């Protein structure tokens, strides 16, 4: 499996395309610029199967309706953030200057943890709350990568000052669910560059003591 990182929107939120050998793909966190994303997918001749959200903050959801309508594909989000797509207060967009963002509800809800199969793709869902109540990380064991959303960044961690954020809970999520993965596991974060579990264990100032 291959993957591509595509920063989108004013906050340069990382959208990820996870691509199998048949050119089928999962779209993770299409945050903005739907037309740009669709054009890229068409240029690459990819076949999207679904949109999966690590969480439903405004900067991760802005292109959902454009993309799912174009490809007629479903959206997956954690059940704790089921209402966030339609509520600017919950998704945080009303607190920023770009105006309220509302999407239609998701078709499917992630409940708890465990293996999930979406089209040709199978992966483990880990609940990693703290940045938001329904934040999840998507672990692709065979590919050696985890899509961590805004839980863990290169040299940093997610903010916890938006509704539902909890710093202590986030640190626990990172420690219990992410740092236990093999150190060579690539971490695909919601913003910024790619890192590894081992690099963050060794150098992340927010994780000292683990």
Task: Write a brief structural summary.
The chain is an alpha/beta fold and 210 residues long. It has helices spanning 34-43, 64-71, 88-91, 167-178, 197-203; strands spanning 2-8, 13-19, 24-28, 47-52, 75-78, 108-110, 114-118, 121-127, 136-140, 145-149, 152-153, 156-157, 186-189, 195-196. The protein has one domain (2-207): Ribonuclease Z/Hydroxyacylglutathione hydrolase-like (Metallo-beta-lactamase, Chain A, 4-Layer Sandwich).
Q: Would you give an account of this structure?
A:
This protein has 210 residues and is an alpha/beta fold. It contains 5 helices and 14 strands. It has one domain (2-207): Metallo-beta-lactamase, Chain A. 45% of the residues are buried. Helix content is 20%, strand content 30%.
Q: Distance N terminus to C terminus?
A: 31 Å
- Please tell me how large the radius of gyration is: 16 Å
Give me the CATH architecture, please.
Answer: 4-Layer Sandwich
Count of individual helical segments:
5
CATH class: Alpha Beta
Beta-strand portion reads 25-35%
Give average pLDDT, whole number.
96
Task: List low-pLDDT spans.
Answer: none
Helix content: 10-25%
The chain-level structural class is alpha/beta
Along the chain, the helix and strand elements come as EEEHEHEHEEEEEEEHEEH
Number of E-state strands: 14
Largest sheet: 6 strands, mixed
Strand order of the largest sheet: 1-2-3-4-5-6
